[in-house]
Amino acid sequence: MTSCIFCKIAAGELPGEILYEDEHVIAFMDIMPVTKGHVLLIPKTHRENVYDLTSAEASHLFAVAPSIANAIKDAFKPAGMNLVQNNGAAAGQAVFHFHLHFVPRYDETDGYRPTWDQKTDEFPAERIQELAGDIKKNLQTRV
């Protein structure tokens, strides 16, 4: 895709601090990091979000992910790490090319806040079972 910033980085048309690259994926430093060592891993083929990835693309990307995470862990010794992936504007996606964030966590003051309000009143066990059934019906046709 000609206007995609991540496609341009993958094609070498824009600079990026490349950490890893193979035929299918590329990992590079986020230019607007949340914490020290914030890295992005993307497929080289333009895929807008997780819904568009083929199973082979996803398999390869996630096969590489532990190596990226461990390299960050070894380099910076974070206390933990969040892997974040947003799909669609409503979920916070700003660049519409699939990307997996590796956000090293150091302590509660490092700037990253993955929080949400749990809705236990709206989702009792019976409702969760019903929702699971809906997903299972759709999953059977995809796997």
Question: What can you tell me about this protein's structure?
Answer:
By secondary structure, this protein is α+β, with helices and mostly antiparallel strands. It has one domain (5-115): HIT-like (HIT family, subunit A, 2-Layer Sandwich), CATH 3.30.428. It is built from three helices and five strands. Strands 1-2-3-5-4 form a five-stranded antiparallel beta sheet, covered by helices on one side. The model has no long low-confidence stretch (mean pLDDT 94).
Describe the SSE topology.
Layout (H helix, E strand, L loop, with lengths): L4 H6 L7 E4 L3 E5 L9 E5 L11 H22 L3 E5 L15 E6 L19 H16 L3
Antiparallel strand pairs: 1-2, 2-3, 3-5, 4-5
Pfam families: HIT (PF01230)
Keywords: Methyltransferase, Transferase
GO molecular function: methyltransferase activity
